[in-house]
Amino acid sequence: MASHNNTLFLYPSQRMTAANPKFTPASIRELTRNISLVENNMPGIDALLQNLPPEHSSNIIGVTGPPGAGKSTLVDALIGQFTNDGETVAVLCVDPTSSFSRGALLGDRIRMNRWHDHPNVFIRSLATRGSMGGLHPMIIEITAILQAFGFDKIIIETVGVGQTEVEIAGLADVTLVVLVPESGDDIQAMKAGIMEIADIFVVNKGDRPDADAFLSNLRTRLRPESEMEVPVFKSTATTGDGIMPIAEEINRLIATGGTKNRKIDMLTEKVWQLVRHERMRGLDKEDIAQKIGKAMEKGEFQLFRFARTF
Ligand SMILES: Nc1nc2c(ncn2[C@@H]2O[C@H](COP(=O)(O)OP(=O)(O)O)[C@@H](O)[C@H]2O)c(=O)[nH]1
Ligand SMILES: [Mg+2]
Questions:
Q1: Which of 53, 184, 223, 270 has the smallest number of Cβ neighbours within 10 A?
Q2: Which of 164, 155, 77 is nearest to 123 (CA)?
Q3: Whose CA is nearest to atom 8 of ligand 1?
Q4: Could you give the C-alpha distances from 52 to 2, 146, 238, in angstroms and in order?
Q5: Residues 135-167: pLDDT tens digits?
Q6: In order of start, what are the domains of the chain with their CATH numbers?
């Protein structure tokens, strides 16, 4: 049967680690193919997802912040730290702006290009669909596949716009919010969203002359608000300056279960999204629009009864 070709193949019984490399060209091709199936919501993915082994303990790290803050450059530097520790790393870059310009995706690829042939690193860019912002609609599924493959670290880079932050915080064990000195005036505005989900703040572009002023300004603003001190780090991602302490803090937070106990929250969010996704299946706006048109023509349209028919 055709669907057999869609069956995953990963290595459910043996986690892939640097010491136990399952990272072969063939397994990577399989992984890539599985992600594409899921990304494009192809038939057969239900079976694939249902047969994934139970949750693995990959550490999921969210990296978010305004466009151009240096997120990709920082991720590139973090990959260096984690692979140095002998870990395997998968990166998902989700950029809602990339559907409008190919520049962002291209940028990410160039930024992380040096990892292309590294045996322990897997990088994938996902374009978001639609204009709603937010993460890729299949991000949870794709992350689950990466977890099943057994990566030690999964880094999800996403542009901090609107609800994206909240979603990323739900998915990630540790969330980094990357700011730059020029974010100064935005901080107040961003408070409601991006500021609240940070487990770690990174002030990147530390080589800028106004970096230190911004850093102390940020620290002052944060202090009165939060009962738990959110650590603030300075980095210059382009040179790797300040990256090691950030990687150490990520590992420390993971080891201690994070500053917030997010595991249940994350799973609740996951189940919520999956159920919502399932319930919305087969709903199509164009189809709805046509049916509204027809009902109106007949003079039968009544909003609330109409909505109940779906
Ligand atoms: N001066 C300086 N430039 C940086 C630093 N980090 C990143 N950049 C530059 O900022 C631009 C945007 O970086 P990128 O990583 O693509 O940002 P992203 O959109 O947040 O992923 C690139 O030209 C980087 O080379 C830094 O620490 N200092
Ligand atoms: Mg980027």
A1: 223
A2: 155
A3: 70
A4: 19, 10, 38
A5: 777 888 899 889 888 899 999 998 875 555 666
A6: 2-260 (3.40.50.300), 274-308 (no CATH)
For the chain, how far is it from start to end, CA to CA, in angstroms?
A: 32
Query: What average pLDDT does the segment 92-117 reach?
Result: 61
- Does residue 14 carry a pLDDT above 60? no
Residue 182 beta carbon below 6 angstroms from any ligand 1 atom: no
Q: Is 69 in the pocket of ligand 1 (CB under 6 A)?
A: yes
Q: CA-to-CA distance for 221 and 43, rounded, in angstroms?
A: 50
- Say yes or no: CB of residue 71 within 6 Å of ligand 1: yes
Query: How do strand 59-65 and strand 153-159 relate by DSSP bridges?
Result: parallel
pLDDT above 70 (res 189): no
CB atoms within 5 A of ion ligand 2 belong to: 71-72, 108
Per-residue pLDDT at 117: 76
Ligand 1 pocket: which of 63, 71, 73 to mutate (most atoms <8 Å of CB)?
73
Band of residue 297 on the pLDDT scale cut at 50, 70, 90: very high
Place of tokens 């909240």: 166
How far apart are the CA of 201 and the centre of ligand 1, in A? 16
Closest ligand 1 atom to 107 CA: 16
What's the rounded Cα separation, in Å, for the pair 27 and 22? 7
- Burial (CB count within 10 angstroms: exposed 0-12, middle 13-18, buried 19+), residue 84: exposed
Atom in ligand 1 nearest the alpha carbon of residue 236 = 27
Q: Kindly state if the Cβ of 207 falls inside 6 Å of ligand 1.
A: yes
Q: Name which residue sits closest to atom 1 of ligand 1, judged by CA.
A: 205
pLDDT at 298 over 90: yes
Q: What is the C-alpha to C-alpha distance for residues 48 and 7, in angstroms, rounded to an integer?
A: 6
3-state SS string for 204-237? CCCCCCCHHHHHHHHHHHHCCCCCCCCCEEECEC
